[in-house]
Amino acid sequence: MTPFQVFRARMTRPAADLVVAPLCLDALSAALARQVGFDTIYLGGGGLGYARGVSEALLTATELAEATRAITERVDVAVVVDGGVGFGDALHMDRTIRMIEGAGARAIEIEDQIAPKRAHHHKGIEHLIPADEMAGKIRAAAGARRDDGFVIIARCNAIRHEGVERALERAAAYVEAGADLLMLLPRTDAEFEAVSNGTTAPLAAMSIGVQRPATEMRAAGYALSVDPMSATVLGYRALKAGYEGLKAGAGIGLASDEIRAIIAEIGATIGMDALYALEARTTERQTAAAGP
Predict the structure, then answer these.
(1) 151-155 and 222-226 as β-strands: parallel, antiparallel, unpaired?
(2) Which of 41, 47, 144, 173 is most deeply buried (CB count within 10 A of its CB)?
(3) What is the SS3 assignment for 79?
(4) For residue 168, which of 216, 200, 139 has the smallest C-alpha distance?
(5) Among candidates 27, 97, 36, 37, which has minimal Cα distance to 68?
(6) CA 115, 79, 50 angle in degrees (round to 5)?
(7) Running DSSP on this structure, what letter comes out for residue 66?
(8) Per residue in 144-163, pLDDT tens?
(9) Sign of torsion, CA 209 212 217 223?
(10) pLDDT tens digits, one per residue of 164-204
(11) Cα-based angle 195, 199, 204 (whole degrees, multiple of 5)
(12) Whole-structure pTM over 0.85, yes or no?
C-alpha cells in the first residue's frame, strides 16, 4: 500500500485507534511532535493565518501548499491540512486538491462555507453554502486526487445554525458525494450522541469541542481528533513572557548554558547531525584536506 492508503486504512469505523493530530505550523514543530510520539499532525488554517499576521480567510492555496511541503520534505509524519473552503468553487477545489496532495499531505479538511471565506468566521459567524453546492465540491475533490488513499474530510458547520437534523442531512449528501470522514462539530453531549447515532460514516473531532476518553470516542465512531490552536496559544504565551522579560532587562529566565543546551536539542530534533555528516563526507572533507 502507498503511504496514503496506509493512512486511509486507519480512518475507519470502528477505528483501531483514535489518531490525535496536534497543530504544527512548520517543520520544527512537526519534528518535535514526531519526537514525542505523534505520527500525524494538523496544519490548521486558523493557526497558520495568525502566524502570518492575517485571517485564515486571507491565506492563499500557494501559501498552504508551501507550508505543507516545508513539513513533509523534512519530517516523516502524516499531515492533515485544513483546506478551508478549497479557495473557491468546484473548479478551484480541483486545483487545491492537486496542490495539497502534491505537497505530500495525507488528508484535507474542507468546509461548507462561502468562498472567499470571511474573517467573521473567527467570531463564530458562519456563512453556509447550499448542500448541493458543497456536494459538488466534494465530488470535484474526490475526482482530483491521484491516490484514492488521500482522505477527504467534509466539515459541516450547520449544527449551530440549522440544527443537528439538518446537519446530518447535509452529512449524508457529503458522504454520498465522496467524503471519507465527517467533521460535524457537536457542542453538547446531546449533540455528540445525535451525531454518533445519526451516521455510520467515520467521524473527525476538533479538540476544542466535546471530548471524551479515546475509547469512548472510538466507540462513538471517531477515527481522528485534530487540535487547531494549542501550538499557537502555547507559543504566544511563552513568547510574550519571554519578550516582556527581555524588555524589562530580566532576560528570558534561562541561564546561558541552558540556552545552549536547548539550541543543541533543537538541532538534534530537526536532524542537524545528518547535515553535518553529509558535509563531512563532501564539502568539509575537501576543506579539511586543503589545510590552513
Answers:
(1) unpaired
(2) 41
(3) strand
(4) 200
(5) 27
(6) 50
(7) H
(8) 999 999 999 999 999 988 99
(9) positive
(10) 999 999 999 999 999 999 999 999 999 999 999 999 999 99
(11) 65
(12) yes
